[in-house]
Amino acid sequence: TAVSSSRFSTTTEPQTFPNRPLNPADSSTSSSSMSFQTSSAAGDILRQERKNPRAEYQGEQARLRLGWSEEAMIAGAKEVGISPSIVGSFPRKEAALVEFFMDDCLQRLIDRIDSGEELQDLIPSQCIYKLVRFRLEMQAPYISKWPQALSIQAHPLNVSTSFKQRAMLVDEIWHAAGDEASDLDWYVKRTVLGGIYSTTEIYMLTDSSPEFRDTWLFLDNRVKDAFDLKKTIQEATYLAEAVGAGMGSSLQGFVG
């Protein structure tokens, strides 16, 4: 069963966001139908676990130990009574698992936005801070294995889907903050926010403070700086470079 959302998909079909401006020069990266199918199949295993709290807990512990790997998928299949042989049908095993997780997290973020919970009275900077933090908190249980996930996303065969998923995440957050830009400002804002997200994500990997307290302070400062008009141009340049660093050179220090 595919991840259901009226607003996003990793299929090759172009997506339309209801009542929202499109990228002025939209050329969204396509991903193969096989990629979507394998992500969906990997998702079936995880959704089956959620029907049984004990299976969900045990499955989560197995994934934490095994990381984003074929072994983790086999363990998950066994936990929910699915033949492990199904994993062999996934040509992009680890990537399918990571991509499903990213899609699932995006759907949860969309649900949070649509609920209007704690967002209606916030100014844009507060809204962005809250949503970026909410999204990154989803990765907290897997933080010890997240460098592996970033490495998988950065692989040449997977990077286009990874970029598209992150672009949709950034777009959703900006729309939730009330942005309706459709000109050059569209690119600048998303570059800045993409940089904020990526640098905070990398910072989180080395944060040993209780409940990632230092990470959230780092995020708060980055958001405030981005909304400081005196620093906008400088920050945009720095954060644009950080996007590449988040998926490239900075990652090397964690994966060897």
From TrEMBL:
Localization, per the record, is: Mitochondrion
Chain positions covered by the region annotation Disordered: 1-58
Keywords in alphabetical order, please: Lipid-binding, Mitochondrion, Transit peptide, Ubiquinone biosynthesis
| A biological-process GO annotation | ubiquinone biosynthetic process
In which organism is this protein found? Gossypium trilobum
Biased composition annotated in UniProt, kind: Low complexity = 27-40
Write the lineage as a comma-separated list: Eukaryota, Viridiplantae, Streptophyta, Embryophyta, Tracheophyta
The highest taxon in the source lineage is: Eukaryota
**Name the UniProt record assigns to this protein:** Ubiquinone biosynthesis protein
